[in-house]
């Protein structure tokens, strides 16, 4: 029986991360097809109810390491490596996100395993998992199989949807002796970045801000517009790299993938690496002073002009229409 092990990240209030829940549901579906079980690893202060509640998403078992801190990759690698070596797991599946990437990479090195990252789908062929990974700037899909077990699969953010199926998981407490190097880093404080409190993956309206906003302060315009629309603010990598906005809001190849009802791009050129993260938005509206900006090639509505003049007027008009 080749099971699939998932890491389930939680915040300080004990809420599990949506991508982790999605990975558990995906693992449960796939495990059923290869004749195995899905299980999850949790660390830190997770109550019996919260741990067994992961059964509602398809986990048959939850391995809990209470003394291991949440949020640091290496100690979690220790836990997962132990659980995999002592049980019959053919695969480890991660739902994406920075910590998932770091743990997945560490686990790959520790186990000498094969890894596929940025996976958007997983299928079964001849009783084994095959990961689908977009390549060549998302223009093609590569099928990646594993020659040996365990195989490590790291999903792209939002690749797997949580599915509540009912049920309760058996909770197994595990004692893990951490590797020497795993105790070198200490968690001083966990916090949310500005912008990360709004879950941009779930927002129906996103105002994306790019270098055209001119400076960090320019994001106030984007925030005011997003507020007036009841939406959230997203960003390009250029502005994240410049320190204008937090990474949590980055859309694109090396950021998040979103599909809101409306994506309003302000001062964004529309580079392919940005496009791949937002091209599935239902409606794309772009404001750019350059009529030849590539973003207009895939926008439903384009406004050519200076965003510093247009955005405040648009915000005012929306507020007036809403009577606020
Ligand atoms: C491996 C790799 C991965 C990458 N991953 C990502 C990723 O995940 N996400 C991402 O976004 N990028 C990513 N990039 C970077 C990407 O190639 C672009 O550099 C980036 O998206 C450009 O950001 P931008 O549109 O904000 O800036 P720019 O390309 O500089 O565009 C700014 C736009 O604003 C317009 N503008 C300027 N002033 C005004 C004004 N006053 N009013 C209206 N319009 C104005 C300009 O005409 C221009 O079109 C990646 C690149 C590489 C190589």
Would you write up a description of this structure?
The protein is an alpha/beta fold. Helices cover 27% and strands 24% of the residues. α1 (18-34) links the parallel β1 and β2. α3 (73-86) packs across α4 and α5 (219-229) packs parallel to α8 (307-322). The longest helix is centred in the N-terminal third of the chain and has 17 residues, at 18-34. The chain is elongated and about 60 Å long. It starts with a strand and ends with a helix. Residues 210-212, 236-239, 250-255, 267-269, 271, 273-274, 277, 287-290, 293, 306-308 line the site of flavin-adenine dinucleotide (FAD).
Describe the structure concisely for a colleague.
This protein has helices at 18-34, 48-52, 73-86, 98-111, 219-229, 237-241, 272-278, 307-322, and strands at residues 3-7, 38-43, 61-65, 89-94, 114-119, 121-125, 128-135, 140-144, 151-155, 170-173, 205-209, 232-235, 262-266, 283-288, 301-304. It is α/β, with parallel strands linked by helices.
What is the topology?
Elements: E1 3-7, H1 18-34, E2 38-43, H2 48-52, E3 61-65, H3 73-86, E4 89-94, H4 98-111, E5 114-119, E6 121-125, E7 128-135, E8 140-144, E9 151-155, E10 170-173, E11 205-209, H5 219-229, E12 232-235, H6 237-241, E13 262-266, H7 272-278, E14 283-288, E15 301-304, H8 307-322
Parallel strand pairs: 1-2, 1-4, 2-3, 3-10, 4-9, 5-9, 11-12, 11-13, 13-14, 14-15
Antiparallel strand pairs: 6-7, 7-8
Helix pairs in contact: 3-4, 5-8
């Amino acid at each position: 029986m080749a099971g699939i092990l998932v890491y389930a990240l939680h915040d300080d209030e004990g809420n599990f991360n949506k991508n982790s829940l999605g990975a558990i549901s995906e693992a449960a579906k796939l495990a059923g097809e290869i004749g195995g079980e899905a299980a999850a690893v949790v660390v830190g202060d997770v109550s019996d109810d919260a741990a067994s509640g992961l059964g509602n998403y398809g986990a048959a078992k939850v391995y809990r390491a209470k003394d291991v801190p949440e949020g640091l990759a290496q100690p979690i690698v220790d836990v997962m490596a132990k659980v995999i070596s002592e049980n019959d797991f053919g695969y480890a599946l991660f739902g994406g996100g920075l910590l998932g990437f770091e743990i997945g990479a560490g686990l790959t090195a520790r186990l000498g395993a094969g890894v596929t990252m940025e996976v958007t789908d997983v299928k079964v062929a001849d009783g084994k998992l095959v990961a689908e990974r977009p390549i060549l700037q998302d223009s093609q899909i590569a099928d990646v199989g594993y020659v040996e077990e365990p195989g490590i699969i790291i999903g792209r953010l939002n690749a797997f949807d949580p599915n509540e199926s009912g049920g309760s998981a058996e909770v197994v407490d595990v004692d893990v002796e951490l590797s020497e190097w795993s105790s070198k880093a200490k968690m001083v404080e966990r916090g949310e970045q500005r912008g990360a409190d709004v879950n941009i993956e779930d927002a129906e309206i996103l105002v994306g801000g790019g270098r055209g906003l001119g400076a960090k302060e320019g994001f106030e315009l984007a925030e005011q517009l997003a507020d007036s629309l009841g939406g959230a603010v997203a960003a390009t990598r250029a502005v994240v790299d410049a320190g204008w906005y937090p990474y949590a809001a980055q859309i694109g190849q090396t950021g998040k993938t979103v599909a809101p009802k409306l994506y309003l791009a302000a001062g964004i050129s529309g580079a392919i690496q940005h496009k791949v993260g937002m091209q599935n938005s239902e409606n794309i509206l772009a404001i750019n002073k350059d009529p030849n900006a590539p973003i207009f090639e895939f926008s439903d509505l384009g406004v050519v002009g200076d965003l510093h003049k247009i955005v405040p007027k648009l915000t005012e008009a929306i507020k007036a229409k809403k009577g606020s």
